């Protein structure tokens, strides 16, 4: 009887360990996409901030900052520079990133892709510089904080809240 109990317990333990391994293997196969981008802003009248948002052509109503997939040989900040150039026509000399105010977050898409996003605020140095959107985008707009938080892709809202608070403190628009 003791041998039967031992065998059953061993089988239960093996099944538990095996199913845990299977679960880990399934999770390990989830597609992961690393993303880098800039939360581009401009100052109007020295105090008012507006944020650049791009609307995806493939998903009307999907507004987000210039950002995109990190290529195999890139680090996140290089992807942010490349994607900003590709999606807006802005070159690095047109803006100043605030690298100390980075925000990182993750979310899963409806098709089970884990997106790992790193964003930095970047100030457009000439508030009148034209934006030239890529064919990936349907439209762009400059929006104040309230409108940005109303229309931004929901997965990006908390990052914007974090970055706006840190940014306004950094550039002395609010007391910290």
From TrEMBL:
Residue ranges annotated for the Nudix hydrolase domain, each copy included: 30-165
Highest taxon listed in the record's lineage: Eukaryota
Keyword Hydrolase found: yes
Signal peptide: 1-20
GO molecular function list: bis(5'-nucleosyl)-tetraphosphatase (asymmetrical) activity
InterPro entries the UniProt entry points to: NUDIX_hydrolase_CS, NUDIX_hydrolase_dom, Nudix_hydrolase_domain
GO biological process, alphabetically ordered: AMP biosynthetic process; ATP biosynthetic process
Keywords, ordered alphabetically: Hydrolase, Signal
Name of the protein in its database record: Nudix hydrolase domain-containing protein
Organism: Allacma fusca
């Amino acid at each position: 009887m003791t041998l039967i109990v031992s065998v059953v317990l061993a089988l239960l333990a093996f099944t538990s360990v095996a199913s845990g391994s299977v679960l880990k293997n399934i999770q390990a196969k989830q597609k992961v996409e690393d993303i880098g981008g800039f939360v581009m802003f401009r100052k109007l009248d020295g105090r008012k901030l507006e944020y650049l948002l791009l609307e995806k052509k493939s998903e009307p109503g999907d507004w987000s900052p210039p950002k995109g997939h990190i290529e195999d040989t890139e680090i996140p900040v290089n992807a942010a520079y490349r994607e900003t150039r590709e999606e807006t026509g802005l070159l690095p000399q047109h803006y100043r990133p605030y690298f100390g105010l980075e925000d990182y977050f993750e979310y899963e898409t409806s098709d089970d892709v884990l997106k790992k996003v790193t964003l930095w605020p970047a100030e457009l140095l000439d508030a009148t510089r034209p934006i030239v959107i890529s064919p990936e985008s349907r439209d762009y707009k400059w929006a104040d904080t309230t409108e940005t938080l109303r229309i931004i892709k929901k997965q990006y809202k908390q990052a914007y809240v974090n970055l706006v608070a840190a940014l306004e403190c950094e550039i002395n628009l609010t007391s910290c």
